[in-house]
Amino acid sequence: MFKIVMPGGTGQVGTILRRALRAAGHDVVVLTRRPSRDGEVGWDGQTPGPWTKEIDGSDVVVNLAGRSVDCRYTPANLRAMMDSRVNSTRVVGAAIAAAARPPRVWLQMSTATLYAHRLDAPNDEATGVIGGGEPGVPGYWGYSVEIAKAWEAAQERAGTPGTRKVALRSAMVMSPDRGGVFDVLSRLTRLGLGGPVGGGAQYVSWIHDRDFVRAVEFLVERDDLAGPVNLAAPGPLPQRAFMRVLRGAWGVPVGLPATRWMAEAGAFVLRTDTELLLKSRRVVPGRLLGAGFTFECPDWAGAAGDLVRRRRLT
């Protein structure tokens, strides 16, 4: 059993991981700005403090810290996304570097948004195209890519020779928990709004929550894997097909389509951004599959059916 330190572990992904890792018997310590439960320790995500004692002597660090992307992409919010990710990664790296007994592995959250908006071919770690400057897409989308690049660079630059480093280029994690992306998409579907958006040709990459946890455990154990790893199911699919499968899982026959301008209006009301809906994220897990990882839910139909069943039980 390991001691696992999770900076920023109070969000959706952190909740999923903490629940599963504690159920497996691990000692999980969450670093958060507002500690309120057992196993939570205060930090500010920017400066060293007493929290660094948790990292010294731990086995694993899984850094999930960063401002939520579920917001309007204003200059202020984009800067907050950048600063919260880069600063927290730097200070975690400094704590590991200063530890007398550093953890053996540091898993750093990253994002599949790093890859280019494309429909022609999937992006794996070896042949994927890094985004930025694609024709026909809003210019500000490129800033999301710059955030992802700076995020990973902060981990790469950390001087932690005794600690293996892995960047988790994660797709959307689908779980039945309230407030997560599956919850939002399910609510729209059940309201009859789960149709194609902007034509629906853009690809959706995703990963089932159990496979996300299993992939994290796999990467902890595999000492031969370092650097960027895509955490995504091997079957991304166009948004129109993705939503058609989700409608079928919920038994909803019709989903109204939405044009780009309708998506913009809806995103404005929901205080979020259309990049989350319209960017094509066609990402595949080349390194995981090459290392022998087996997905329990490789296809969206099976995953969606499982998630709907679990959601109905809550």
Overview of the molecule:
This protein has 314 residues and is an alpha/beta fold. The chain has one domain (3-312): Rossmann fold (3-Layer(aba) Sandwich), CATH 3.40.50. It is 40% helix and 14% strand. It is built from eleven helices and eleven strands. It has a seven-stranded parallel β-sheet, sandwiched between helices. Strands 7-9 form a two-stranded parallel ribbon. Helix 5 packs across helix 7 and helix 7 (239-250) runs parallel beside helix 11 (300-312). The longest helix is centred in the first third of the chain and has 24 residues, at 75-98. The radius of gyration is 19 Å and the shape is globular. The mean pLDDT is 94.
Strand order of the largest sheet: 3-2-1-4-5-6-10
Oligomeric state, counting identical vs distinct chains:
single chain
**Major sheet, described briefly?**
7 strands, parallel
CATH architecture: 3-Layer(aba) Sandwich
What's the number of domains? 1
Please give the share of residues in helix.
25-40%
Low-confidence regions: none
Mean pLDDT: 94
Compute the gyration radius: what is it?
A: 19 Å
Q: Please state the overall shape, judged from the principal axes of the Cα atoms.
A: globular
Q: What is the CATH fold-level name?
A: Rossmann fold
Q: What fraction strand?
A: 5-15%
| Class inferred from helices and paired strands | alpha/beta
First and last CA, distance: 30 Å
Number of contiguous helices:
11
SSE order, as H and E?
EHEEHEHEHEEHEEHEEHHHHH
> How many DSSP-defined strands?
11
Specify the CATH class. Answer: Alpha Beta
Tell me the CATH superfamily.
Answer: NAD(P)-binding Rossmann-like Domain
